[in-house]
Write a structure and sequence with these properties.
With 570 residues, this protein is mainly alpha-helical. The protein contains 25 helices and four strands.
Length: 570
């Protein structure tokens, strides 16, 4: 005789489904799944921080092409950004785990080299997240200094020591905030998303209305004016300006590292990645809408699948076009103003001191949100890597706080290293600015490897709910080729005439770090080559069941059978 198990809610069935997927990947559920699909997309959008991101790296397009780079540079970089994001989304749907990139690399690579490749990707991803936090935190400190300068009517300038003090205070406050419980952090994403969207549209609408006639540019200048202040050949200058869109719409793995705290992760994570792609340009909208149609579920809701992403679509193009029309023609004065931030100077000339200060404070608030989410994401990557025993002090880092049920130790571990990275400010401006390119270059190393590994090695990769079908290989090829090319570009200095003090320190800092990671792997007796065996299952034998044979998540039909209402003998 049989009796059916009690009927449970869709929410609890979904949690069971997510836990089953995670178990197939070899891990038990330890973090609380409090993030809804909308909140995961909100985190991805807030992590990119379109407006504060544009503000923090606006000096790249202004000095390397001016209006042409600001408007059309995004359009040129857009298809490549889209291919990177789609390739990442496909992998995320197949294996949604916080370890993400290094897990995918291990699962898809040859047994001969998968331990080493997984190690390299894990350490590259770790330095990416830490320098990513450091870069946005430094940008936030500079923006606060710019606000002080505006408030004093450009009479006060901060010193490096004062900037680092602001930087350190911000880093510590982020660590306190990110140490809160998952439910609080998840609900905050709704507020963050609303604030970011509102701020984007305030700038898009208010700036053209308030700008005095003498600073309003003609369409021919705003859409076709080319100004090269850096000194590089025109073509290469445009390529260097790609730093702005690549940095502002980077972080495709942000939602990936939240996989173990998201509901319906196999679908919600790729949708979150796809949603940030709409920030790049308008023409990718049909692609993105088709992706939503392919993987969407009725319960995701119309707002989550359509309204929010489509509002994001107009944010980046709108902001860049608005700035191009309202910044005047003297770009050298914008770039070298006492305020210290090109966008702050544009707001100052357009809105006056009070208006600029009010709007700039909102931008600072938005950048603060970006930094907090960056630390949140980075702490989850560190937690996952420590769970597999790859980091020094892993036994202390792989712990869940009994009160908040979050990995508080890794939050503060990352925060301490962010404080250390900030000391580059005392070397030179170029040295601290290198954290922007270090985070982007390290991210590309960690993205290239799993994307390429999927096709280079023989494996039985099985796609998840989100997949590109026959387009997978060409999309991956474009993504990998563009990232390899841009890594080389990121090693160049900002101007062709440079000194030892003004050189681009990306290759030095990142190269030194990766050299240490390789040395730590091959170190005699104690190196990872002697004990690191890739991702380590933490399930009990009875729970582990069909632990990976290496390469993929089972198909949805099999998973549905496992989580359907069970029957038991009585």
């Amino acid at each position: 005789m049989v009796a059916r198990a009690p009927v449970t809610s869709k929410w609890h069935l979904q949690l069971d489904a997510d836990e089953a997927v995670l178990a197939k990947l070899g891990y038990k559920q330890e973090l609380r799944r409090e993030f809804t699909p909308l909140e995961v997309s909100g985190l991805a959008f807030s992590y990119t921080g379109v407006l504060p991101g544009i503000a923090s790296v606006l000096f790249y397009p202004i000095s390397n092409g001016g209006p042409v780079a600001m408007v059309w540079g995004w359009a040129i970089a857009g298809p490549f950004i889209m291919c990177i994001g789609l390739a990442m989304a496909e992998l995320a749907s197949a294996a949604p785990t916080s370890g993400g990139l290094y897990y995918w690399t291990y699962s898809l690579a040859s047994p001969r080299c998968r331990n080493f490749l997984s190690w390299i990707v894990g350490y590259s991803n770790t330095i990416q997240t830490i320098t990513g936090v450091a870069s946005v935190n430094w940008a936030c400190a500079i923006q606060i200094a710019a606000a002080i300068n505006i408030a004093s009517d450009q009479a006060y300038a901060t010193t490096n020591e004062q900037l680092y003090g602001i930087y350190a205070a911000l880093a510590l406050s982020h660590a306190v905030l990110v140490s809160l419980g998952t439910k609080v952090l998840a609900r905050l994403q709704r507020l963050y998303t609303f604030m970011n969207l509102c701020l984007c549209f305030i700038v898009i609408i208010a700036l053209p209305i308030a700008t005095p006639p003498e600073y309003r540019n003609s369409a021919s200048f705003a859409l076709g004016g080319f100004i090269n202040l850096a000194g590089w050949p025109s073509g290469f200058a445009i390529i260097l300006s790609f730093m702005a869109p690549l940095y502002s719409v980077g972080g495709y793995d942000a939602s990936v590292h939240m996989s173990e705290e998201a509901s319906n992760a196999a679908t919600a994570i790729p949708l979150a990645i796809v949603s940030i792609l709409e920030n790049v340009q308008l023409w990718c909208l049909p692609w993105v809408d088709q992706c939503y149609c392919c993987v969407g579920r009725p319960w995701l809701g119309y707002v989550e699948r359509r309204v929010t992403p489509n509002l994001m679509t107009f944010s980046s193009p709108g902001i860049n076009v608005s700035l191009a029309f309202c910044m005047g023609t003297d770009l050298e004065s914008v770039l070298n103003s006492p305020v210290g931030q090109p966008m702050a100077q544009i707001l100052y000339t357009s809105l006056g001191r009070r208006g600029a200060l009010a709007l700039w404070c909102l931008i600072i608030s938005s950048m603060y949100i970006v930094t907090s989410n960056s630390l949140l994401v980075g702490s989850r990557q560190t937690f996952a890597f420590a769970r597999d025993g790859a980091l020094p002090f892993s036994r202390y880092l792989y712990r869940i706080n009994g009160y908040t049920k979050t990995p508080v130790n890794t939050v503060w571990f990352d925060a301490v290293f962010v404080l250390v990275v900030g000391l580059l400010a005392f070397v030179s401006t170029e040295a601290i600015n290198a954290v922007f390119t270090i985070s982007l270059t390290a991210s590309y190393v960690s993205y290239i490897t799993p994307i390429a590994t999927r096709f280079v090695f023989k494996n039985d990769f099985k796609p998840g709910p989100f997949h590109l079908g026959k387009l997978s290989f060409p999309v991956a090829t474009i993504a990998v080729s563009s990232m390899v090319f841009m890594i080389i570009v990121f090693f160049f200095p900002s101007t062709p005439q440079t000194t030892v003090r003004e050189m681009n320190y990306t290759v030095v800092v990142l190269g030194g770090y990766m050299s240490l990671a390789i040395f730590w792997y091959y170190c005699p007796v104690y190196g990872g080559v002697h004990w690191f065996n890739g991702p380590v299952a933490n399930l009990t034998p009875s729970m582990e069941g069909g632990r990976r044979d290496g390469n993929s998540v089972p198909e949805k039909e099999q998973l549905d059978a496992e989580i359907s209402a069970s029957v038991v003998d009585v």
